Amino acid sequence: MSRVTIAIPSKGRLKEQTEAWLASIGHTVRQIGGERGYTAEIEGLDAEVRLLSASEIAQGLIEGSLHLGVTGEDLLHDQAPDGPADFEVLKRLGFGGADVVVAVPQAWFDVDTMADLEAAGAAFRKAHHRRLRVATKYLRITRRFFAQKSVGEYRLVESAGATEAAPATGTADVIVDITTTGATLRANGLKVLDDGVILQSEASLTRSVRAPWSDAAETIVASLLRQPRTEAKRPI
């Protein structure tokens, strides 16, 4: 069997936080080739380490080309054809948090729940002869959640830019997007539905269910699941 393949984020705050977490459990990351390199070594682990985008990590874990990786749960859920059955979250890491939410214009005073949205969709179609447009980058997550909530009077519009601006620009009526504080949504005249939090996401150590596993690979998993080191207290 080939070496265990681990992927960590290649840039930004998520990369820094992942490296800090690994250091806290005794596994310092050394990037090969300097800041422009896309491979690394993790101290104490006999593994091939790749630096990839969070989206590429999610895809690799689902396909089985990666054994382990750190990425956002929102990306895992959205890229997985069969949902949570396509991956295994081993540990939520406490950073990179964001909620995937359904948001509508604040001016829709009588739309506060997903049931209200379905009723509004039926009325909207009758009045405007078209379905409500829902802008999102999270196509699979949105379809699953809307089906669970029995909302069918809509059509998806794949968002390529700032999703929160879609209702104001007239390209969509409703959005599904990520938010941390809700400030950006409010600034764009939007509100989150009362039962419209689809997923509370954060960065997670995740294993592939399709990659081949060995005893050596399980040893690496055990090492990554150890508790962070704490400094010894000085005697009084």
From TrEMBL:
Residues making up the signal peptide according to the UniProt record: none
Protein name: ATP phosphoribosyltransferase
The keyword Cell wall biogenesis/degradation appears for this protein: no
EC class: transferase
Pathways per UniProt: Amino-acid biosynthesis; L-histidine biosynthesis; L-histidine from 5-phospho-alpha-D-ribose 1-diphosphate: step 1/9
Keywords: Amino-acid biosynthesis, Glycosyltransferase, Histidine biosynthesis, Transferase
InterPro entries: ATP_PRibTrfase_cat, ATP_PRibTrfase_CS, ATP_PRibTrfase_HisG
EC number, UniProt record: 2.4.2.17
Gene Ontology annotations of biological process type: L-histidine biosynthetic process
One protein family per Pfam: HisG
Catalytic function, reaction form: 1-(5-phospho-beta-D-ribosyl)-ATP + diphosphate = 5-phospho-alpha-D-ribose 1-diphosphate + ATP
Species of provenance: Hyphomonas hirschiana VP5
Free-text function comment from the UniProt entry: Catalyzes the condensation of ATP and 5-phosphoribose 1-diphosphate to form N'-(5'-phosphoribosyl)-ATP (PR-ATP). Has a crucial role in the pathway because the rate of histidine biosynthesis seems to be controlled primarily by regulation of HisG enzymatic activity.
Limits of the ATP phosphoribosyltransferase catalytic domain: 54-213
Domain of life: Bacteria
KW tRNA processing (keyword) present: no
SUPFAM superfamilies attached to this UniProt entry: Periplasmic binding protein-like II (SSF53850)
Annotated Gene Ontology cellular component terms: cytoplasm
GO molecular function, a single term: ATP phosphoribosyltransferase activity
